[in-house]
Amino acid sequence: xxxxxxxxxxxxTLSIKARYLAEQADGAALVTYGETMVLVxxxxxxxxxxxxxxxxxxxxxxxxxxxxxxxPGGFFKREGRPNEREILTSRMIDRSIRPLIPKGYNxxxxxxxxxxxxxxxxxxxxxxxxxxxxxxxxxxxxxxxPVAGVRVGRSAGQLVCNPGAEALKESxxxxxxxxxxxxxxxxxxxxxxxxxxxEGEAKEIAEDxxxxxxxxxxxxxxxxxxLQDQMRRKIGKEKRTIAEATVxxxxxxxxxxxxxxxLQEAYRTPRKQERYAMIDALRDKAVKTCxxxxxxxxxxxxxxxxxxxxxxxxxxxxxxxxxxxEKILREKRRIDGRSFTDIRPISSEVGxxxxxxxxxxxxxxxxxALAAMTLGTSSDEQRIDFIGGEERRAFILHYNFPPYSVGExxxxxxxxxxxxxxxxxxxxxxxxxxxxxxxxPYTIRIVSEILSSNGSSSxxxxxxxxxxxxxxxxxxxxxxxxxxxxxxxxxxxVVILSDILGDEDHAGDMDFKVCGTKEGVTAxxxxxxxxxxxxxxxxxxxxxxxxxxxHIIDRMLETLAASRSDISLYxxxxxxxxxxPEKVRDVIxxxxxxxxxxxxxxxxxxxVEDDGTVTIASADAEAAARAVAMVRWLTEEAEIGKIYxxxxxxxxxxxxxxxxxxxxxxxxxxxQLAKNRVNKVTDxxxxxxxxxxxxxEIDKQGKIRLSRKEALGANVS
Length: 717
Prior knowledge:
31% of the residues lie in helices and 31% in strands. Strand 26 (655-661) and strand 27 form a beta hairpin.
């Protein structure tokens, strides 16, 4: 029987229908918010996968084109591979859900979110996040939820939760966050809502304003958390039990005795590859020493017992993590000897690639990013077709993470969700400081090649990408830096780490990436692994991130103090000409004839927009000037008193029709052909003749009266 649960969410009604659709799934929720409807299902197989130490979870968010009353493009007329927004939304749901399914749950699990109906004022990503939590809550999958998602913006100084599309355009930030129910609550409440995941972009927002926005979003989630609790109590299935991993204390002690000293030595080794080699050798030693059973009568070489190997590896990983955390918390010392607030050594270069329009190499510790920037025209814009409409991007950033950057050899393939996510974060971080199209009418593409990685490669992309813009002469508003913050918490002891290494991220409790200028934050991304991230910790982390970010920007400015005064010699010179919209057809010409002629004669690239914006691009300034002149000639309008050289198109008894501009003709009356009396028009002019004429009058109907007599002997500049 269908069950409906309703609640108020950011001033609108949100409903969750259960036992209604997809009843063979382990959990299914139809979330309706306004006229946006998202069906989210969860299926978890009944047989676990042996020999794995991770959660085999897949999240797929799909936007069905019929949801917006559209038919897909292309030959097959059906949805294909996921677009960027679908991938990023899938990733947000995954990052929010995955930490809340208990460790040791090894059943193949899939969450599918299908957008069935879409209106522009109610975000399907919000509905999908809530639906994923609701489906898990009513399923038998163990889940430390419920969670809820919310988008927060600010318009006219007022915080707005779940703003519509138009309101979001006016907002000075766009933040998506998820929160989780934590009991018992504080301040006399039954429960608190603590931050689980955060990401977004902003126009140099102050850190205190960011915290206020997060608090507002977490507070707005409370009714939806309570709604899911009602669902759980009424229709939630009994959760599966997770078999506690048996701990052989004797085996655990044997592993510790075998490798502890070696691990402690490894974490005194600052270079990543040397450290990893030591840890790999110790892992092998633990298996060979502790996972074999030998008989006194067996003379053969000892062979690891498969039943013991997994236990040994589990004990090793637990010990490995605890030794690193102990080193930081107790010894107050990081792997590379830095203090908690120190930033790794920074160096950078610009102009490395001579034919590239802008380039930069950014080094921070063992992380190295090469950023290459290319300038193009409006025809190079990225056009992304979403179900809500088409998005055109004049700024594109691609992040590549080749296997050699971490000392591995793997097949190169298409970018994965991680690469797309990191590239999107860096693009958001830099978008806030780019010049408007009116003053810098270029399409900009940055490609970040991660050449070496030991933590914070996405933040190195932000820094390297910013320097490549400056090297390419892009007049950015202010330089942008990025830093990744970490957290270790044991009881009341809290340590916030600036500029974390990969190992510190793995063993830590938080990964918080913060990008911005010296004035404020432009992008952020956070993943939390603990339950009790307080507002105090958040404010401390943001303050420490700000100090680190300013330090990084200062090091960047030592390499290049400001954007170069001009763009590269190899970049196209773009000139923008504005014509009346009704003149666009004159520029294009019949079947594109006029544009082809301009391109053929000048070699420029030319783009014409419906609003009358004509963009001309060429590395040759003289060719660009000729093209501009041709466009102006094609679209020029006759002016009274101006003298033109025109072509006689038709001769009649009473005068001659002369084309003075493309498609613009006027009449030279026989009385205006010469200073003396003219008896016959053909005595003075014939069809095809070029003559000078002066515009005498343009009437209300646009008819033009010309005079050859007035033009004779006139001074023409």
